[in-house]
Structure formats: structure tokens, C-alpha cells
Amino acid sequence: MTARILRALVEVHVRKIFADRANLFWLFGMPMMFSILMGMMFGAFTGSGRLPEVRVYDADRSAASAGLVEALPGGEAYTVTVADTTGSEDLARVLVADGRRSATIYIAPGFADSLDAGRPAPVVFFHDDDRLSAQSARTDLETAILRLEAERAGRRAAPDAFHAAGFDSLWNHPRLKLESSFLGRREQAELKLSKGGQHTGPAYTLMFVLMFMLMSVRDVVTERRNGTLTRLRLGAPAPWQLALGLLLGPWVVGLLQMAVLLLLNAVVMGIDYGESLASLALLMLVFTGVSSALALVLATVCRTPGQADGVGMTASMTLAPLGGLWWPLEVVPVFMQKLGLALPTGQAITVFHDMVGRGYGLAENAGNFLGLGTWLAVLLAVAAYRFRRLID
Amino acid sequence: MIKVTDLVKSFGTLTAVDGLSFEVRAGEIFGLLGPNGAGKTTTISVLSTLLPADSGTISVCGHDVAREPVQVRRRIGMVPQELALYEELNAEQNLRFWGRLYGLSGRRLRDRVTELLEVSELTEHARRPVKGFSGGMKRRLNIMIGLVHSPEVLFLDEPTVGIDAQARSRILDLIRQMNDEGLTVLYTTHYLEEAEQLCERIAVIDQGRAVAMGDKEELIHQIGEADLVRCHVPRESLTELAARLADLDAVTSAGERRGKLQLECADGAALLPVLQRELDARGVALEQLEIIRPNLEMLYLKVTGRALRE
Amino acid sequence: MLRNVIMKDLRRWWSDRNAIFVALLLPLLLTAILGISFGGFGSGLGISAIPLAVVGDLPSLPRQFLDDALREMELFDVTWTTREDAERRVRKGDMRAALIIPDDLLASIAEGREASFVLWKDINSEFKAGIVEQILERMLLQWRAGEAAYYGAWPGEWYPEAGAPDAFGDLFAGDSVLDVYERIRDGSSEAEAAWERTKAILDRQVAIQDAFGQPGIDLRVESRGGEEDAEGATRRAERNMFNYFLPGMAVFFLMFSAAAAGADLHREREGGTLRRMLVSPLSPLQLLMGKWSFATANGLLQLLVLFAAGKLIFRLNLGPDPLALPAQALATSAALASIFLVLGLLTRNEKQAGQIGTGLILLMAIIGGNFMSPSAMPAFIRAAARFTPNYWANQGFNEIVGGSGGLGAVGPHLAVLSVTALVFLILAVLLLGRRRREGGLL
Fold first, then answer.
1. How far is residue C366's CA from residue A33's CA, in Å, rounded to a whole number?
2. ipTM of this model?
3. Which residue of B has its CA nearest to C279?
4. How close is the nearest chain B Cα to the Cα of C221, in Å?
5. Is B51 part of the contact surface with chain C (CB cutoff 8 Å)?
6. Number of C-beta neighbours around residue A98 at 10 A
7. Which chains touch A (3 or more CB pairs under 8 A)?
8. Is the pLDDT of residue C237 over 50?
9. SS3 category, B211
10. Class of the CATH-defined domain B226-293
């Protein structure tokens, strides 16, 4: 009897959702669009496309200024072009201010003479500090300047006996080096979170699953107002069966949504989920359960569809950034990291990160699963209690 | 006041109104009676300038609807079937808004709003949000909004749908009161009783056409003046009894209808003793009896071949 | 007539306290979250200490020197540990990075051999591990510069040729500390040679340092926000991050309000009040202008309230020109009101308007820079951004709030938004006429 009732409730919810084709867009289309767009911003689809250009205006036209420019490597992050004209400081500034270049360099006239005379030789670097290419160019420029300064210091110290070849040799082949690597499931950079959609794919999947679930708050509120909830109550032997039925419907849809999205992310963006299928499955089950339970709790609080929309949006739009779905939690202050890790969104995305980066499985993720399980249990209890009061 | 000649209005391949013609005299309550989908609302929409007619001529208050819509709109009031109210606002705010749209302001508007609230017995509830009103209260307010600018003609499109009998009765009283004060009313409904109680003249509409028109007496005259007597008798006696009673002079026709004995006669009441004698002679017990006077349902059935409520 | 329609819609809007609450509270809440996450008012809130493990068997003096250098940066939370422990902790995420000092570092330096520091980074802490890497590379770069300069000046001195006298080797020859002491005490030739060698090295170090201290290339760095000093990062840390985030959030939620206002035509149609209005003396054009005026006024009010609240709560910079912000707010509201009015006329019912509207808003928000500056995005998105009204809105507000610009600074933005408002309003009028003719308004 119970299974039949539950099945009927789940079926009616699933049918309602998929009867409206527009829901397919919200379930799958919008999340994928977000993931892809955000992933693009982090280099998900590298390949063709022009590199950002760093333009150099050399108003000095000396060997020294040319030497400085030659020392800028460019490469994968940007290209260096030297303007035919000497330009001006204002022109260089405006190019960056207008967004036409990520960075420009202006070498003022008298650069070489100033260096020779022991006076400060002006170089101005204009950059858009939001752009990675500009940051790379700045680092390279500072390195080039340091090289030049080091060579000049050596020459000043030993003007008659400076050994240029020796200097070059030690500069190009430094004795002290730094070898860095990531320690993780694979010692490779492909699994970096910033690479492509590796963070954005799972993160926006979680966000949109939560968001769609919280949209179901309106459905329950509407059922209450329409009287269909009362009718359902009369049909079901116990309030808990009704509550469970209202919980399971969105839960099933959420699971389906999450499964499809994760699959699409893997196919379209090549996202890796680690090696623990059990961990992934459990994460999907628990997170969708938490979202569904939260939606039911909120449905018992809201009295009108308008309230439901507002509360649902507020909940999803705060849980997402606080939980580290919009940016990794490591960039925020410590107290916010702790808050984020206490939230179901933070726990879920951490499980993803650890599965992918560290190769964690069920056992290693136990802590976060315990956290999610606690959320699920608490929310279920609250939902059951409030729901019973609502319909009795 | 309203003159409609050969009105035709189609929506794609569906002809909603098919050559409808009627006139509404000043100061009368004219009914458009017909089932859902007969074309009543479409007719009202065209008369109120919401929809253009495909063909035909319509004049309201002496102005052609197609050529002078603005003049028409100033003179008519509209009470749509759905409750066209701003539920977030209170009754007074609703009336004031619509009043201002019609150019009322200041004291004139205030007095008019007060008057309408009194007439509709909503004065006590004037400052309550409409969403808290009962169905009947909302319907009354819906009508008052149509009257706020003192129109010459009021179109009422099924204004009593979904409310209880008492509320309906109050609304009909209200309309009669307005009419007594000189308001011309075009009233559409699918409730026979309303049309019979309220309207002086009625056009029966079916599938976009007027199938009968006139006052009550004229309409009933169209179906004749015979009474119907129906009685419930044991099945085994029915056929024989019908055959016997058909021979009586007072009986025009006799037969079986839905398991009952049905007799058509000029005067049902006068037939009763005769009927009783015949039944007693056969030892047949009379279980149920009703006498049906000619009515609009019978008219509708006769002109369309089906019941109004089918 | 117009005022009547506007006041009616204003009363209806005011009666829905939940919608107002969401329209005002949510942007402030998100601004708070975003702002605090990225530095708040710029003091005290920022990158937390980065847990860094250090592994190395250094003598106490160099170890202390390195430890002090790392701690003085106030960026690291340093823990000296073993290699195995460091690896375990980095893999687990307890340490963001581990620096492994080569065992024979000092000997390698003294003998001129290569030596490699190893940096293990936590794969899930790219940002902080990246900071560690950058800082260490910078430190090694400084070393490289000094070493190259010295070697270029005195190639034979720093790293002696094979077979050349080794002053230090001769001084410290033998196993006995007593022997070394006696050589120094007695002023032996080995001690004398070692002292001369030490003096020479130190003199040259000083000479190189003096040479580095001479005026050289004077690098001035300017970002889009203005000139940075040598400690450019410090300057940025003092920036009020709420200035950066509140305009974007305000415009984002304004779009939802504008969409709701545009969909109101459907609500009125479905509720029957639109039909009633069309039967009244109110012309369809007056009705449309009333709706647009309400949406614009409502949007303006919403923005002004948000910015005022931002000033009170987040010390938002409202710019030097009292006209700039209201003008920008008005143009933004007008443009969005027009666009979503058109959407309302193009869609068939409220649900469709809501769904398409929300999808459009989210897409425009990403592209137009409500969540992230378009300058950080790929080129094609930057190009597409200019076709979104919120891009011009965001940029204009950023000029005022972030750049302290006045009316002149936002002139182009005002122009684009105003033209957008006008074009879409005209489109709305045309669409309204068509729908009315087709009977679609009923």
C-alpha cells in the first residue's frame, strides 16, 4: 500500500515536470550553458584564438631599449608587438583603459642616456589587472628589468673586466632552481581545478540541481492553496507517507538531472570525476536528498507562491557562493571557509574536488558524507514535523 | 440603443458569430441566452470595441462601433465574466482607479465611489484588500466598477458564475435597481432562470446565430402553449396507459420519455382528475407527477434539438 | 491618465512585500558575501595565512634565517617537518604546499654546484599554492640576479678553478677543531689567507650591492584603476571590494524586477483587467506608456535605495557628481523596462515570459559582467558584452563608484542606454499595435 502510494506521488510529480518542455531547458540546457561559458573563461576550450597582445611603444629606439623588449618572452600567454610609431604615454594608457589591449609598455625617450648617466630611466607599464595575460607580462617585464639591472650592476662593479658570457651563462642556467609539482591523483596539471570546467562543471551542476529543487517549493505551496494537497491527504493513510511522497518526487527528478548533467559535462568538457563510482553515486543521492528536503521545509514555511519564489531564490543564491560553488573556498577568509565547509554545498563540492584531485573514495570522503548525511537527517526531521502540523 | 445587423466574426476556420442581428431598446434588459461556445462573449467583445467585426454593422448609443470606438467606449460599461479586479488593492482603490480612467476626479469621484459602495453593500469592506472578499462580494464589486462612470449601456457577461443562490439573487436585484434608474442592460447568460427572471427580451443563441428572439410570451408562443404532464407509473402499465390516454380529447399526445409517462395537453391541471380516474380504473398507483409549463428550455430543445445543459 | 496607471501599479507592487524584500535584500546579501570573500573594506580581511611545510636539514643559523624570512612576509604559517609528513599533509590538504630544501644546499652553493628546491603543491589549492610558488621564484630570481652579476664581474673569484688554492679548505683541513683554533690563534698563513679571502668576498658583495643601488630602470606600473606603487598588491588590498560588487548585483536584480513588470501585461490579461482597460477611454499607447513609466520609476527607486543602503552599510563610494548616479540609474531602468516590455509582448503568457526572461537575464548577466568583469573573459565574450544593456549599466556604475567619475565620464554609457530605451520602446509600441489588431491582447 505504502509503496503504491509513494510510486503514484513520484510518478505524478515526474510527469508534471516533463510535461512542460520548458522545464527541460531549466533542467539541462541552462546548467550546461552556464558550465560551458564559465568553463570557457577558465580555458576549457583552448585551441584556436588570438593571444592577447602586449604593445610596446619604444620612444627611445636605442640598443638598451631594444634589449629590454627582446627579453620579453611572450609565448603561450601573450604576444609582443613593437609599434612602428613612438606613440605616447597617454596613448599607451588609453589602449588599456579602453580594453583594446591587456597591457602596454611605454619606454620614454632618453631611456638609454639616463641609464648611462646613472639617472633613473623611465619605463611605464599599463595593464588590466583583471587579465592573466597582463599579469604574465608584468612578471616577465620585471624579470627582464632585473636582468638588465644585474648586468649593469656587474659592469659597474668591474667595469674593465666584466665577463658578459659568464653573466649570460649564470643567468640562463641558474644554479639554484625550483622544481614544483602538484601532488594528487595524478601528478599532472590537467586536473587543476582552474583547468577548463573541472571546477565549474560540477559546481554549476550542484547549483542548478539545488535551484531547480527549490523551485519545487512553489509547487507544494500551490497545491496547498489549490486544495489538491488536502485531497492527497485524504487519499494517503498517513501524513508521513504524503510527506515522503512529496519528497521523493523532486528527489527522483533531481537525481535524473544530476546524472544527465554530469554525463554531459564529461562528454562535452572532458571532465574527470575520479575513480570512485560509489563515491559519485552516494554524493548524487545525498545531495539531491538534502536539496529536496530543504525544499519541503521551505514549502511549509511559505504561504504564497510569490513567497516561495523569493525564499527559494534567496536560499539557492546564498548557498551557492557561500559553499564555494562560484569560486574555490580557499580564496575567502578563514571564517568564511569554515562556514562554507559546514554547508551542504561546500561539503558536496569538496567531495568532488577530493575525488578528482586526490582520488578519494568513500572512506576518505566519509567526513563530508557524514556532514551531508547530518543535513539530510535534520532537514527530513524538520520537514516531517512541520508538514504534519500543516496538514493535521 | 444597440443595433446589430448581420454580425459575423470568425477566428480562423471557426465562425464564432454567424450573421447575428438584434436590437436593444433604451432602458430595457436584453438577454443573450445560449450555452458555452454559442458566441455570446464574442458578441459582447465586438460590441465593446475589443474585437473588430468581420462584417455587419453595429451601433451603440448612436455611434458606429467600427468608426467611432472612442465615443462608444465612453458610453458603455463592461462587466466581464472573469473577475477583472486588482486583488492587491482594496475596493475603494479599485473603484477610484477605474473612475479616474473615465475622467472622474475630486469630489465627484469620491461621491460616486461612496454611492457605489453603499449600493453594493460593501461600505464596511471598502478598505479591505479584495483578495479577502467572498465570491459574491467580488462579483458585486465587479459590477460596480462597470458602473463607476454612469454609462448609458452596461454589458454584463455571465456576471453570476460560481456564486451561491443568495448572492446571485442580490446581484439580480442590483441590476433591476440600476435598470429602474434608466440603465440599458445587455445581459448574457446560460442560466435559463436568470434570463426568465431578469430579461424583458431574450435572444436565444446557438452556434453564433439567433435561433429565437422576443419577449417571454412571444418565445413561448413559438413552442406552442401546451403543458407537459409527466408521471412515474409501473413500467408494465406504461405502454397500455399511454395508448389509452392518447385517445382522450384533452390529450394532444401521449408517450414514454425516460421511463416516465409523458402527456402533452392544453391544460395540465385540468387533466389531472381524468388521469387519476384512468389510473384508478386500472389499479395503477401514481408514484410521481409533475406539470411542466412551456419554458425556455423547451424552446431551446425545440429550436436546437438538444437541451441547454447538454 | 498616465499617472493613474502608474499609481495603480505602484500600489500593487507595494502590496507584495515579499517581492520588495527579495529585490532589495538579496542584492545586499550577495554583495556582502562577495565583498567579504574578496577582501571587504581592504583591511584585515584577505588571504589567510598559507599553511606551508618546510623540510630541510640546515644548520641552525641558516634555518633561522630562512624561517624568519618566510614569517616576516606574514603570508605563511610555517611548519618544519619531515619529508614523509610533508607529503602526507600536502596530499591530504592540510598544507597548501611543502618546500623541500636540498640536503647539500650549502655545500652546493659553496662549491658552485646546482641545487634544486622542490615544491610540492596541493592540487586542490591552486591559488594559494600558486602564491607560494610565485614568492619562492621571486626570491630565487633575486639570488640569480646577484649571483650572475657577481660572476660576470669576477668570474674566477666566486667559484675557484680546479687546482687553485682553497683558502678555506686549508684553514679547515684536518679533523680536529683544535687544529683550526690553533691556526687562527697563531695567525697562521692559512688563517691569514682565509681572512683575506673572506674580506675580498665581502668587499665584492658590498660592491655589487652598491652597484644594484644605483639609479637604474624606473618602472612605473599603472592598472586601470590608477597608479600602483611598488607594493601594488597592498594598494589593491585597501580597495573597498563592495564598490566593485554592489553595482553588478544591483543591476542583476533590477533585471528581474524589470522582467516582472514586463510580464505584468500577461497578469493583467489573464486576470481580465487588461480587457477592462481596453474598453475604457485609455488608449493602448497610454496603457503601454503607463506600464513603461512604472517599470522605469520602480527600477530607479530600487537602484537608488540599494545604493543608499550600500553607502550606509558598505561605505560605498557614490562618486563626486550628485547627478551622475541618478542619471545612470534612470537610463539603466529605462532601457531594461523597454527591453522586458518587448519580451512581455512577444511571449504568449506569464509563464513563458518568466522562463524566457530568467534565461535571458542569466545569460546577459554572465556576458555583461554582473558576476565577473568582462575584461577577464575571452575576446568573443568581451565583444558580445557590448550588446547587452547591463554591460553599459555595469561599466557606467563602475566609472562612478569605482573610478569616481562624474556625469561626463558616463556620457557614452548614458547615450547607449538611452538609445536602447527608445528603440525598444518604439518596438514595443509597434508590437502592441500588431497584437491589438490580431486580438492577441485578449
1. 10
2. 0.84
3. B73
4. 58
5. yes
6. 9
7. C
8. no
9. strand
10. alpha beta
